[in-house]
User: Which sequence fits this backbone?
């Protein structure tokens, strides 16, 4: 079955819209774009569209690619301090010369729906976070909607990045799955993937995961267009398509987190 | 080869003793024991012996098993605040009714050589900690002393506990290893272990890892007496014995961390 991420996202958006309506205060999400990467801009435009549809204000702050870490940090501190901004998201990756974690740490935990500051990640890794990183929330939603019990499942996670691999592999392990973390240095990734009940991928390398690497009936959640979708669809029991798959669920998870953080205040 | 943990620990202790001598200030480690578990007491006595040998003062604070979380938290806050205490360690596990992470969070990052508070773990998980959790430091020392490159290695980590499995699996993945996290629900752990170049175990279940589960030439680091040592020794290229193995290296790593934290101040 192909997972209809758009449909799942719409269901969650309807719930969010209801909650936003009930909220006494008007909500605003601040988004930061550094440089002018076309993909980053497109992702933020999608987030803006979705936020505004459910009545959440969205303000884009743009900075040139050449900005220094110190200057950017100061800007983010200001954006995060502004009472009008209820949450701050920074589109990654940042330019290479920027100290990314230092920048992310300028977002206080209660305004960090992406769960990326050191404090937010710390809370997540010790099991004390009120919200889950959006990629984890998306995996949880997909598995939950399909009544897939995680405990005892074999999982292969491709990549160990800050947005997908690291948080998702930790969460799956914490939930009782057997988790294999696969990276670019893994000599034979198929050895893990071939027996995996659940494959999660967040690498960004087209056709990294081919049909002869997965077992029949596997669940395939592809965050980064790593999967040879055309040839794998028939084999997987559940699979996210490259478009309208996990992406829309991640986007609404950011908004869901924003609301949860406000309720926690 | 059987890893002589005592010998490695002695080498590190000699370095620590030198540093302590050079230090202007006399150092003290505060240790907390809740209840009267014989193993916990023995571990703390070992830590005390080693600390005092290198000239680090050691003070044991004991509390009854029935103490409440709130009362214990207050006590730890006091112990951590005392200027005389340069570091605070809490012997785990705590009694079941205690909120362990909440207690650990009472230790400020700069006095947390075990890297167990939420803040310390957060720093470790984002790669911003000045020190490594003692179990990770021990693995790093053992692999380093034997010139074993982690990148591209297949690793099986048994258990996902706060002291061993969780930090070690994260660190190995971050260093570029392929990491499989195995738990009690894993249907066939040998499928992972049999191809592992490095096995790390922190479960506490004797004979969990048997000789027919490891490949010839594997490196076996056993934190919790999980390994059928007698029958595996001949097969492993490197193995920690159940006594005088990784334990003494973990203990000196706590002292090494204490010194590093003071230098960072």
Assistant:
């Amino acid at each position: 079955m192909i997972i209809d991420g758009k449909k799942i996202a719409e269901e969650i958006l309807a719930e969010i819209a209801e909650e936003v309506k009930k909220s006494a205060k008007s909500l605003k999400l601040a988004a930061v774009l550094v440089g002018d990467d076309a993909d980053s801009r497109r992702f933020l435009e999608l987030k803006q569209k979705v936020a505004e549809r459910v009545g959440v204000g969205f303000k884009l702050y743009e900075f040139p690619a050449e900005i220094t870490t110190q200057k950017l940090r100061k800007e983010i501190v200001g954006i995060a301090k502004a009472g009008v901004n209820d949450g701050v998201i920074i589109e990654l990756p940042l330019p290479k010369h920027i100290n990314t974690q230092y920048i992310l740490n300028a977002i206080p935990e209660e305004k960090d729906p992406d769960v990326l500051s050191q404090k937010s990640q710390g809370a997540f890794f010790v099991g004390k976070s009120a919200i889950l990183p959006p990629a984890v929330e998306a995996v949880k939603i997909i598995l939950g909607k399909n009544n897939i019990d995680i405990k005892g499942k074999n999982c292969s996670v491709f990549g160990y990045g800050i947005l997908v691999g690291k948080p998702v592999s930790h969460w799956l392990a914490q939930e009782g799955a057997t988790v294999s973390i696969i990276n670019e240095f893994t000599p034979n990734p198929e050895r893990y993937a071939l027996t995996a009940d659940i494959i999660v991928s967040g690498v960004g390398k087209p056709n990294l995961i081919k049909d002869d690497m997965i077992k029949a009936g596997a669940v395939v959640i592809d965050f980064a267009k790593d999967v040879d979708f055309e040839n794998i669809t028939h084999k997987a029991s559940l699979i996210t398509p490259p478009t309208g798959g996990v992406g829309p669920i991640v986007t609404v998870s950011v908004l869901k987190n924003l609301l949860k953080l406000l309720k926690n205040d």
User: Anything to note?
Assistant: Chain A has a mean pLDDT of 96.
